[in-house]
Amino acid sequence: MSLTTAQILDLAPDASSRKAGQDQAKPQKWAGLGRAGTVIWGEIKGSGASPYRTVADLAGPSSKCTCPSRKFPCKHGLGLMLVDASAPIAEGEPPDWAAAWMKGRESRAAAAETRAKEPAKPVDERAQAKRRQAREDRVAAALDELDLWLRDLMRRGLAAARSEPYAFWDRMAGRLVDGQAPGLARRVRTLPGLIAAAPQAGAPRPEAALGLGLGRLALLLRAARRLDALSPEQAAGVRAALGYPVTAEEMAARPDQADTWAVLAHAVEEEDRLTARSVWLVGRASGALAQVIDYGTAGSPLPPAPAAGQDFSGALAFQPGDPPLRAVFREGRAGPAAGAVLPGAASVAAARDAFADALSRAPWLERWPVRLGSVRLGRLAAGSAAAFAAGDETGSLALRAEPRLPSLLAVAAGRPVDLFGLYDGYGLSPLALIAEGRLYAMPAQDSQPVLLQVA
User: Fold this and answer.
1) Average pLDDT of every residue of the chain
2) Which of 212, 231, 330, 346 is geometrically suited to a Cys-Cys bond with 315, CB 3.0 to 4.6 A?
3) What are the start-end ranges of the H helices in 118-205?
4) pTM of the predicted protein model
């Protein structure tokens, strides 16, 4: 198998890596190129005395290079894959260093499979219950403090809140982190950004956005006080929003959902000094949407994931929560897509109903994925400052005024398209578009849509 140029560039950790990788994508720069199945390798001259040895597995996709770069994949890994994308590298006998990397991957995969089959080690249930109760007590104290803080904020009014410096919000967030409620802390830290944001089309006014953010916090706080009155799935969703992790034991008990999953897009965000990558998928048979999130820190690579425009044939396991969305990869393999279609694409009215249903089950949701079928992109109102929207005969959804929007409109060119994105009740942030059998996905790092797959 081979990846397309756009799929490879979408793996780049940042825009500078994309450009540097393209600079390395010249076959004449490489020596000893070869392939064994989905694994490719080659050597390239760098700043050192010895050439860098680079190997990549296109099925991961993943790569390894002897260069000192702390980025994953590095520019040489990107360049090697781009060389193969332009003209498939010929089969050959892998050199010792490439064979050792391949064997190491096979050994690690086999070891992981063996560990998964091993019986679980005895658990000190008493110590575990003690740790669990200690965290519950800390979270309860954090909820009490947040409740008092919100009441004081409402007593003084939103106008006073808008004048508070960032340190005011950060102090409260820090207390919530100390109280082991990082999910609440993240929400508090986003509030000053809502206040400072300039008014734009497809977004609420700053004062309305602040009120909305505080309202969601209050709703989540109230739900956290009533966990016993909620269904198990609803309670799990609340706990996840507070920041409780899902344990390995809980995930092991979750059922697999097998399907051929179309990978629609990747999205990368920075969260509290962590890099969070979301992989968005939709089941071709089930129509179920899934979000697989992986976290990484500076200098540590994110785990391999199927590229946008590929299909993942296998199983996902959904974490507990209502409505279900977040999932993890189970057994399966990435490969070429069966076609550029958007399963479950529906009208604007149906998308609004889906968003309303999600809010009725978890009213603290900030965004929800929606799928639109056969919509046209156009100006919502006359004038240079007017918003753009995606619409059909049932209504329209405003599009966020983002740097990528002009390129998105150019790709659509007035034709009916299918659109996938995140909707917050005010505007839609597009992540992928399908036009005339071609999938265009928004790169995780840059502002231009990229052609990823042709049906």
Assistant:
1) 88
2) 330
3) 125-156, 158-162, 166-178, 182-196
4) 0.82
